[in-house]
Amino acid sequence: MILPIVGYGDPVLRKVGVEVSPEYPNLKETIANMYETMYNAYGVGLAAPQVGLSIRLFVIDTTPFSDDEDLEKTEQDELKSFKRTFINAKMLKEEGEEWGFNEGCLSIPEVREDVYRNEKITIEYFDEDFNKKTEVFDGLIARVIQHEYDHIEGILFTDKISSLKKQLIKKKLQNIMEGKARPDYKMKFAAKKGR
């Protein structure tokens, strides 16, 4: 089922998510709905707060990035096959050079900015079957994970840009809060009910 994506300004996007237990009601269904919602909006990641759930859960599928011809074949192949569910993720380490990439967010439509993040991460999480994993990622996969991880910590990518850039996008953010943004997917705006 495609869920409405919560827009910028909704308080749920600022909450730190609570841990999910294996007994969480309809967890498999929630995960399936999140993937369906993400694909419908042409996203590569979606965190539970973006569908109104203040829990530590996010899903990622980097397949769309694999079409980038500027990437090496090995990285394209890696991106094409990377689909994961992260439950109760805990960032253990962020290291390496910080590098910029133009990021966007399904909760902040029509806004894109360069964000600087570390190139390599170590993260601990549970998969959808509650198997515990600790893995190291780098490049675009690490970046997508960092972006979604921020969501379960109540952080948005716009928090990581300069105050000058924040001033420049202030009107766009206000429009999203007022429900004036018109993405081609279902949204629930802070000031209005979903359309």
TrEMBL record:
Its cofactor is Fe(2+). Keywords: Hydrolase, Iron, Metal-binding, Protein biosynthesis. Fe cation binds at C105, H147, H151. It holds the Pfam family Pep_deformylase. It catalyses: N-terminal N-formyl-L-methionyl-[peptide] + H2O = N-terminal L-methionyl-[peptide] + formate. Gene3D superfamilies: Peptide deformylase (3.90.45.10). Binds 1 Fe(2+) ion. Its EC number is 3.5.1.88. It is an enzyme of class 3 (hydrolase). The active site is at E148. PANTHER family: PEPTIDE DEFORMYLASE. NCBIfam families: pept_deformyl, PRK00150.1-3. Belongs to the polypeptide deformylase family. Removes the formyl group from the N-terminal Met of newly synthesized proteins. Requires at least a dipeptide for an efficient rate of reaction. N-terminal L-methionine is a prerequisite for activity but the enzyme has broad specificity at other positions. This is Peptide deformylase. It comes from Flavobacterium noncentrifugens. The gene is def.
